[in-house]
């Protein structure tokens, strides 16, 4: 009997000791948990629709690389108000139908805003979708029709210089050089059509006569028929509105036909691909563009200088030489990040903050948006550039 009592006492003592040890371990565990970081906050998800493959890939690839570079940096530095930034990147394949499908998919994913697309046509294809869904869109494309009329574009913004500004810059140059009789050739798509429309307005207002209008397709490599018509008119200058590779092919054809008039392109040629494809034919081409391509030549007093030099350095370290198309994406994502920082994860408030953007110094220019202007750039954000020795240089004119 005594043995049984002692045995029960021993078992009880062991159980008490085990309980004390368990409590002690639990206390240590609680202390360790209290010293660790809180669980990560939910990610802020932003959609990206870009022309990464297909005819406009020379635009979409640097844009994709740029937004990924920015997201990595933002997340290394703690995210947006403590929330990781998650990008959902989809490829339009340079196809307008694919662009529309991508926008719908991103909306279903619950993104707070959408960046893109790379081209005017792809962007125009998704505008109705984002308008109906009431989700902010910041395009990297040029057509002024992306943001006008404003009463139909309440949710749409863009970072590339509008073709209306580029047309005005070209007309200023023509007037300066007393070139009053010109020809106009353009790619047969939304970018070319909008450029033609805006140039026609600017030329008319500036006293410039357009003697011939010609079009070509984005996949054309031979434009001799159009250029023969141009040459017959003996213009004082020829204005071209396209992107590579068609813009490069046009330039080669132009030189082969020995047309003497200066060739002035739009800002659609502002990447290394144009020079690489056009080769020696690119020599002497003039075009308006943002300051990125001549960042090293800018005076220290230029408000964009530091931003441009830093972007060039960061991009070059991973991907090689940057171009303005990547710059459009840099601006688009930073504008959205700034808006989310102020508005939080509320799409309507993000839209409102985008519209309030004032004095934002970006890669493309200094942005001042308003209810009357969803691009926010001025003609002063453009410089006239000439290709000399295979490099971009500020024009001496």
Protein described:
The protein is an alpha/beta fold. The chain folds into 2 domains: 196 residues, Response regulator (Rossmann fold, 3-Layer(aba) Sandwich); 126 residues, 3-Layer(aba) Sandwich (Rossmann fold), CATH 3.40.50. 46% of the residues lie in helices and 16% in strands. The strands form 4 sheets. Strands 2-1-3-4-5 form a 5-stranded parallel beta sheet, with helices on both faces. It has a 4-stranded parallel beta sheet with strand order 7-6-8-9, sandwiched between helices. Strands 10-13-14 form a 3-stranded antiparallel beta sheet. Helix 2 packs across helix 11, helix 3 packs parallel to helix 4 and helix 11 crosses helix 12. The longest helix is centred in the first third of the chain and has 34 residues.
Give me the secondary-structure topology.
Blueprint: H1 2-35, E1 44-50, H2 57-76, E2 85-91, H3 96-109, E3 114-116, H4 120-133, E4 137-139, E5 156-158, H5 163-176, E6 181-187, H6 190-206, E7 209-216, H7 224-232, E8 237-241, H8 246-256, E9 263-265, H9 272-278, E10 286-289, H10 305-319, H11 324-343, H12 347-355, E11 360-361, E12 366-367, E13 383-388, E14 391-394
Parallel strand pairs: 1-2, 1-3, 3-4, 4-5, 6-7, 6-8, 8-9
Antiparallel strand pairs: 10-13, 11-12, 13-14
Helix pairs in contact: 2-11, 3-4, 5-6, 8-9, 11-12
């Amino acid at each position: 009997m005594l043995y049984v009592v002692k045995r029960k006492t021993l078992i009880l003592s062991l159980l008490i000791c085990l309980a004390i040890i368990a409590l002690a371990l639990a206390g240590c565990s609680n202390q360790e948990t209290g010293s660790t970081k809180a669980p990560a906050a939910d990610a802020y998800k932003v959609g990206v629709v870009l022309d990464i493959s297909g005819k406009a890939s020379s635009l979409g690839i640097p844009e994709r690389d740029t937004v990924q570079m920015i997201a990595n940096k933002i997340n290394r530095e703690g995210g947006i108000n403590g929330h990781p930034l998650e990008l959902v990147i989809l490829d339009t394949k340079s196809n307008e139908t694919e662009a529309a499908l991508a926008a719908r998919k991103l909306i279903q994913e619950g993104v707070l805003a959408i960046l893109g697309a790379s081209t005017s046509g792809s962007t125009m294809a998704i505008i109705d979708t984002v308008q109906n869904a009431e989700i902010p869109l910041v395009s990297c494309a040029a057509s002024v029709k992306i943001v006008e009329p404003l009463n139909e574009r309440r949710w749409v913004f863009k970072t590339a210089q509008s073709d209306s500004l580029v047309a005005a810059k070209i007309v200023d140059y023509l007037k300066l050089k007393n070139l009053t009789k010109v020809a106009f050739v353009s790619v047969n798509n939304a970018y070319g059509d909008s450029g033609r429309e805006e140039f026609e307005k600017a030329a008319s207002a500036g006293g410039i006569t357009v003697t011939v209008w010609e079009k070509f397709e984005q996949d054309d490599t031979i434009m001799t028929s159009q250029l023969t018509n141009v040459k017959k008119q003996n213009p004082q200058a020829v204005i071209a509105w396209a992107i590579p590779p068609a813009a490069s092919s046009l330039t080669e054809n132009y030189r082969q036909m020995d047309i003497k008039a200066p060739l002035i392109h739009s800002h659609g040629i502002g990447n290394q691909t144009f020079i690489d494809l056009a080769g020696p034919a690119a020599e002497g081409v003039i075009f308006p563009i943002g300051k990125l391509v001549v960042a090293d030549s800018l005076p220290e007093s230029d408000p964009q200088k530091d931003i441009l030099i830093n972007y060039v350095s960061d991009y070059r370290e991973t991907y090689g030489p940057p171009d303005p198309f990547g710059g459009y994406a840099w601006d688009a994502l930073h504008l959205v990040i700034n808006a989310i920082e102020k508005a939080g994860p509320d799409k309507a408030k993000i839209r409102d903050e985008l519209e309030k953007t004032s004095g934002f110094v970006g890669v493309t220019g200094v942005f001042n948006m308003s209810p009357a202007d969803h691009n926010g750039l001025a003609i002063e954000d453009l410089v006239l550039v000439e290709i000399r020795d295979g490099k971009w240089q500020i024009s001496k004119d």
